[in-house]
Amino acid sequence: EKHPREMEWDDTSLGDRLNGILLQTISCLQNRRCPHYFLPNVDLFKGKAPSSMDNAAKQVWRILRELLTNPKSLEKL
């Protein structure tokens, strides 16, 4: 929804799109809420341990930092 045009998903923009997805994931983990896309009142994180979400957020931050600081990091995937 945020980037509906096909040109926003071409090879030159893919890194930006991936960064945005990872930042949104971190936000959901830190806020302890991940609404279902089609059923926004359904929280996909309901019942998950806060410590698990904290650990997951740290791991996503680690991946994001690697992508931002190492230009060849995508080649490792």
TrEMBL record:
Superkingdom per UniProt: Eukaryota
Residue stretches making up the Mab-21-like HhH/H2TH-like domain: 1-62
Gene3D superfamilies named among the record's database cross-references: 1.10.1410.40
Pfam family, one: Mab-21_C
Cross-referenced InterPro entries: Mab-21_HhH/H2TH-like
Protein name listed in UniProt: Mab-21-like HhH/H2TH-like domain-containing protein
Lineage: Eukaryota, Metazoa, Spiralia, Lophotrochozoa, Mollusca
